[in-house]
Amino acid sequence: MDESQELEFTGERFTPECVREMAYEHWHRYAWATPLCKGKRVLDAACGEGYGSQLLSSSAEHVIGVDLSEAAISHARSKYRASNLEFHAADVTRLPLPDDSVDVVVSFETLEHLSAQDEMLAEFRRVLRQDGCLLISSPDRKTYSDEREYDNPFHVRELYRDEFEALLARHFPAYRLFGQKLMFVSALWDLARGGEAIVHTDHGGRVEHSETPPFPPLYFLALAGASVEQLPELPSVSLYSDAQESVYEHYNDEIRKHIRAGQLLAERDAEIERLRALLEQAG
């Protein structure tokens, strides 16, 4: 991998130089998808800078990254080089691939950037093998935009949950829906083995216990295929962090700064009082 150059961050697409919260959201999706792609032929549709394609190629048999941006593809070809990884500039509604040619289609943070959403999903279905599957994400318009009164200038058409599910159902007879949201949590786990997850949520002293977080997701992710029987199993809960625990470290660093600022203010106030007392004595 050539680390010598960076793709300019414009806000339209994620780049690996972005850190903390935004990085967690984007890297988590690809980390979640990587085990499912093991030994598979994979299409990363709207691959952008190429970081996700590169991660998928660590387990996949072969990965094809496709993006509309010539600049992004040129960058990806230069930065990410592997025998099982290739990049092509193309429209996701007109893929340069034959029918039934890939096992997995991955397309994260793509849907909302175009209006031809049915055409895109039809193309995904065309290039997927009969037993293949699609992993796709979409921001929930209700929580992402409406409730936050936020307007992302790069989003062409965001979907509510029922619209997203209706779109999926028109092209894939079977799908399973997942939610994604950044949360500040305490993790507790069995050091000897894995197992089921349980979420404890404090409502001002009353603790609620559930199998999934009781918060509305900011993003939906779907696993879709030709039949329920052909959908691979995925963990019901997936957690992501980085080895440096960058979000938590940043939080701790900010807390330390606030504490130090409080100490400096207290020292300043004490000095002002001392000087005021001296002035009063002198007067």
TrEMBL record:
Q: Name one GO molecular function term.
A: S-adenosylmethionine-dependent methyltransferase activity
Q: Gene3D superfamilies under this entry?
A: Vaccinia Virus protein VP39
What is an example of a Pfam family matching this protein? Methyltransf_11
InterPro entries linked:
Methyltransf_11, SAM-dependent_MTases_sf
Q: What is this protein called?
A: Uncharacterized protein
Source organism: Wenzhouxiangella marina
